[in-house]
Amino acid sequence: MKFVPTYRPRASALHTARAGVAAFFCGSLAFAGAIYQHPLVLAAALTGIGLAAVGAGVGRDVLAAARVALPFALLVTIINPLVYQEGNTLLVRGGEVLGRRVDITLEATLAGALAGIRVVVIIVALWLMSVAVDPDALLRLFRRISYRSALTASLATRLVPVLARDASRMSEAARCRPYPAGTFAVARSALSGALDRSVDLAASLELRGYALGGRPVRRRVPWSRHDIRIAAAGVGIVVVTVAGRMAGAAGVDTYPELHLELGAAELALAAAIVLLAAAPFAGRAARMGVAHA
Questions:
Q1: CA distance 252 to 244
Q2: What span, in angstroms and rounded, lies between the C-alpha atoms of 286 and 44?
């Protein structure tokens, strides 16, 4: 269950902020990892995500995300030098496979490692959004566009942890038997239980009139101080990353030789990302309850 992101309400600025603002903040950190491949900027984005997770009280959950993302990063690091042989520094001179020569270069390996780190940043940032943003409130933003689609997605996000718990309990019960059932039998039982649960859920929703749901009434909720802080931090991260990209900061050339720009602009960009990610959680007021501006 620790590898299934589950939202739990907490008294933090990120949890208290409205869902759209909190999702934008997490997405801004993922955006920083998506448009840069400089290791200093990627490390700053990871640090910012870690500080935000600790400030929101979900540090352990995000650490589980890092464990899930690392195998994908390793896979990208291994595959890139196998399929792309550019680079001047030869590490391994391979033979021919299916008529194609396979040579591993240092530059291709480092490029794969940087791409793997970008994958880690994106996964961890989206994991933070999954554990710190209320999925019902987030999907409620789309119910005016498509009521039934929003309801279906909301139910799916709620049922994933429930089905994971059912499968875990079935597996534990199977191990208690004198002759434990096989993995296929446990999976088949979990799938059967999921289908039965879906039928019962559909009948319950129909009895409660969800099939006749129409366009909901727009509700205007004033912005709280946490909404303003989280939104300002997210906008600041996007502005800083885009401005740095347009200015040519944190440039990386991997082929034919690895070249990293490292100067005052790169240090300032990395420091700005870290500070902006941690700023909404600084001070006592950022960890108290809701207060409207």
A1: 13
A2: 22
In order of 13, 75, 142, 183, the CA distances from 291 in angstroms are: 11, 46, 25, 50
pLDDT (tens digit, 9 = 90+) per residue, 130-189? 899 988 787 777 666 666 665 666 666 667 777 777 777 777 777 787 777 777 777 777
Long-range pairs for 172-175 at CB < 8 Å and ≥24 separation? none
Instruction: Give the percent of the chain with pLDDT over 90.
Output: 38
Which amino acid is residue 43, in one-letter code? Answer: A
pTM of the entire predicted model: 0.76
Domain boundaries, the chain: 18-139+224-286, 145-210
- 14 close to 52: Cβ distance less than 8 angstroms: yes
What percentage of the chain reaches a pLDDT higher than 70? 82
Give the DSSP letter of residue 42.
H
Q: DSSP secondary-structure letter at 88?
A: S
Residue 107 gets the label, from left (phi > 0), alpha (psi -120 to 50) or beta, of: alpha
pLDDT tens digits, 241-260: 999 999 988 888 888 888 88
Q: b or e along 127-139 (b: 16 or more beta carbons within 10 Å of the residue's beta carbon)?
A: bbbbbbbbbbebb
Q: How far apart are CA 45 and CA 30, in angstroms?
A: 8
Backbone phi and psi for residue 90, each to the nearest 5 degrees, phi listed first: -85, 125
Q: Are strands 259-260 and 252-253 parallel, antiparallel or unpaired?
A: antiparallel
SS3 96: strand
From CA 249, how far away is CA 243, in angstroms rounded? 9
What string of H, E and C letters represents the secondary structure of 9-37?
A: CCCCHHHHCCHHHHHHHHHHHHHHHHHCC
Give per-residue burial for 157-190: e unless 16+ CB within 10 Å, then b.
beeeeebeebbeebbeebeeeeeebeeeebeebb
